[in-house]
C-alpha cells in the first residue's frame, strides 16, 4: 500500500495514502490540551512560567513540564518517523509496544505452517499462515486460500499442552480462531494445529502462536 509523509504538530509521520489501508493496530494522534487550559504541569503541578516551559505528550496530548515529559520514544502505532516526546507513563507503554512491533509482528509476517480445520469439518489442510505486510489480514495459503481481516476476528484461543496439576511448563500447540465474514453476522471457526508428523520448525510455530496471543490482546 502506498504511503505518504505528513507533518503534524507532533512530528513527521509516514502514513497510508488511504485511511482504509491503515493498520488495525494504529492509533490516531490525540488532540493537545490547549495551552490556556494548563497553567500547571498535569503530573507534578509545577507552575509554568518563562523558565519552566510546557510540553505536550505526543501519545496522550496532556501538558507537562520538561522533567515530566523529557523522554523521546518511538511511537510506531502513530507512524512517527522519529522518536517523539512522551510523558513517563506513556513512554513505558510505547516501549512495550515497540518490542511488539519489532518482534511479534515480524514473527507473524514471516509466517508458520499449521494443519487448519474449518468449522466442524473432520478434514484438515496443511497451510502457511502469516500476517499481511499491511497488518490488516491473516493470510492462509495451501490448496485453498483464505484472507481473514484482523478487525473481524472476535476470539483467539491458544491451545497448550504440557501442564500438570503440580505445575510445569506448557507450550503452544494450536489455536482456535473465530471471525465474522464481511457482510454477514455468521461466525466462522478455524482450528490451527502444529503438526507433529512433518518437518516444520516447532519452535517457529510456537513463537507464531505466542505472537498471535499478544495480537489478540
UniProtKB/TrEMBL annotation:
Pfam families the UniProt entry points to: FYVE, ZFYVE21_C
What is the superkingdom listed in this entry's lineage? Eukaryota
Which keywords are on file for this protein?
Answer: Metal-binding, Zinc, Zinc-finger
MF terms from GO for this chain are: zinc ion binding
- The residues covered by the FYVE-type domain are 35-90
Under InterPro entries, the record lists: FYVE-type_Zinc_Finger, ZFYVE21_C, ZFYVE21_C_sf, Znf_FYVE, Znf_FYVE-rel, Znf_FYVE_PHD, Znf_RING/FYVE/PHD
* Protein name, per record: ZFY21 protein
Amino acid at each position: 500500500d502506498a504511503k505518504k509523509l505528513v507533518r503534524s504538530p507532533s512530528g513527521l509521520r509516514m502514513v497510508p495514502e488511504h485511511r482504509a489501508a491503515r493498520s488495525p493496530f494504529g492509533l490516531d494522534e490525540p488532540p493537545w490540551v490547549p495551552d490556556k487550559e494548563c497553567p500547571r504541569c498535569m503530573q507534578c503541578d509545577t507552575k509554568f512560567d518563562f523558565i519552566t516551559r510546557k510540553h505536550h505528550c505526543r501519545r496522550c496530548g496532556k501538558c507537562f513540564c520538561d522533567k515530566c515529559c523529557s523522554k523521546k520514544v518511538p511511537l510506531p502505532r502513530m507512524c512517527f518517523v522519529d522518536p517523539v516526546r512522551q510523558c513517563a507513563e506513556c513512554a513505558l507503554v510505547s516501549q512495550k509496544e515497540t518490542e511488539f512491533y519489532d518482534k511479534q509482528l515480524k514473527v507473524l509476517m514471516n509466517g508458520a505452517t499449521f494443519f487448519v480445520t474449518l468449522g466442524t469439518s473432520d478434514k484438515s489442510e496443511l497451510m502457511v499462515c502469516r500476517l499481511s505486510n499491511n497488518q490488516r489480514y491473516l493470510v492462509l495459503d495451501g490448496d485453498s486460500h483464505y484472507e481473514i481481516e484482523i478487525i473481524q476476528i472476535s476470539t483467539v484461543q491458544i491451545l497448550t499442552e504440557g501442564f500438570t496439576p503440580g505445575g510445569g511448563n506448557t507450550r503452544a500447540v494450536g489455536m482456535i480462531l473465530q471471525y465474522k465474514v464481511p457482510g454477514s453476522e455468521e461466525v466462522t471457526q478455524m482450528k490451527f494445529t502444529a503438526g507433529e508428523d512433518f518437518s516444520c520448525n516447532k519452535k517457529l510455530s510456537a513463537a507464531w502462536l505466542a505472537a498471535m496471543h499478544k495480537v489478540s490482546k
